[in-house]
Each structure stands twice: as structure tokens, then as C-alpha cells.
Design goal:
By secondary structure, the protein is mainly α. It is built from 3 helices and no strands. Helix content is 73%, strand content 0%. Helix 2 packs antiparallel against helix 3.
Length: 104
């Protein structure tokens, strides 16, 4: 059992490439990360504005709160999770494409 734990731990701290970020330079990764944070912030602001316009109320600050009805909690979680996830992926891919085209 201890060997299994050691093997699993070594997977996380190994300096060997694992293929997850193969071909991505540290600078490119840093730029993509920064752009993704900005895109996430913008997406959340747009989501909140859209919620206010559509629902005529403030979006739930804490969907897990007992003061928030289930429908609003689930709707906010599903919509915000999907939109923020798409924004992060699109921004990372877009910024990587721009970085690579400028570098060439």
C-alpha cells in the first residue's frame, strides 16, 4: 500500500513531461492563463448583467444558501459553469494561437 501511495505521489511531482502541456512554452502558458482570468471575469460580469435583465433580480451570491430557491441555484450553477468554462477554453486557445502566430 505504501508503494502505491509513493507511485501515485511521484506522478504528481515528477519532472518528466506527461503530455498534458506538450509543445506549450512557459511564456505561452502564462499569457494564456492571464487571458483566461480576464475572460472569466468578463464572462461573469456579462452573466450577472444578463441575469439581472432576464430575471429582474440579483444573481445568487451563494447558490448553496438556504435562502436561494432550488430553481435559481441550479439555473445559475449550470449557466455560469458552462459559460465560464467555454470562455476559459476559448480564451486559452485563442491566446495560444495569437502567441504562436506572432512568434513565427
Amino acid at each position: 500500500m505504501i508503494e502505491t501511495i509513493r507511485e501515485k505521489a511521484s506522478e504528481f511531482v515528477s519532472n518528466e513531461p506527461n503530455g498534458r502541456n506538450a509543445g506549450i512554452e512557459p511564456t505561452e502558458n502564462l499569457i494564456a492563463f492571464a487571458v483566461a482570468i480576464g475572460a472569466t471575469f468578463v464572462a461573469r460580469e456579462l452573466l450577472q448583467a444578463g441575469w439581472r435583465t432576464t430575471m429582474n433580480s440579483e444573481p445568487p451570491k451563494n447558490p448553496a444558501s438556504h435562502e436561494v430557491v432550488w430553481r435559481d441555484a441550479l439555473l445559475w450553477g449550470a449557466i455560469s459553469g458552462a459559460v465560464v468554462g467555454v470562455a476559459r477554453i476559448a480564451s486559452r486557445r485563442g491566446s495560444s494561437s495569437v502567441y504562436r502566430s506572432l512568434k513565427s
